[in-house]
Amino acid sequence: MIWYTALILAVGAERCVELAVARRNARWSLERGAVEHGRGHYPPMVALHTALLLGCLVEAGAADRPFAPAVGGTMLAVVMAAQALRWWCVRTLGPRWNTRVLVVPGLPLVARGPYRLLRHPNYVAVVAEGIALPLVHGAWITALVFTALNAWLLTVRLRCENRALGLGAPAALGARP
Asked: What is the dihedral of CA 46, 37, 158, 24, to 10 degrees?
């Protein structure tokens, strides 16, 4: 359980780095006249992602589930792949990447990196991590609850982003226009 706690703390630290990058990028965007969309869903999104980390620790500790190497190792690989995809998105969007929906008028959509393949690759990473991170140590209730709540929240977020970017609704999470 100690190594799992260290993993969750590392993911939490990574989230703090993301927020620092997002704050810096928000300043860049706002200086260029960005308009923010979807402020109302942002606090629940932050709360849900914080609850994911806490739920992982509480459930794995309270249920005293043993580590199952076949499942845990596979899910750890998925978590690492999700992190790699997320940071590929951050690097590709550069100062335009944010945890908020900030749109700078006149900038074209990015169509390189993972965005040449998927419309919303960062959310593929979020979904994969939300399932895999709890399952690394058998926190399947946390995985189910997060996935269900995140599915609802992502429908709100995707509609908001697509409207803000002038896109139609995607046929699927990763659909390209």
From this structure: -60
Per residue in 141-176, pLDDT (tens digit) is: 999 999 999 999 999 999 999 999 887 554 444 444
The structure's pTM equals 0.87
Q: What angle do CA 16, 93, 24 make, to 5 degrees?
A: 40
Instruction: Kindly report, residue by residue over 45-81, the tens digit of the pLDDT.
Output: 999 999 999 999 999 999 988 889 999 999 999 999 9
Residue 42 to residues 1, 85, 115, Cα–Cα distance (Å): 31, 22, 23
**Residues 14 and 53: beta-carbon distance below 8 Å:** no
Cα separation, 152 vs 150, whole angstroms: 5
**DSSP helix/strand/coil, 35:** strand
Cα–Cα separations (whole angstroms), residue 142 to 67, 97, 117, 136, 158: 16, 28, 30, 11, 23
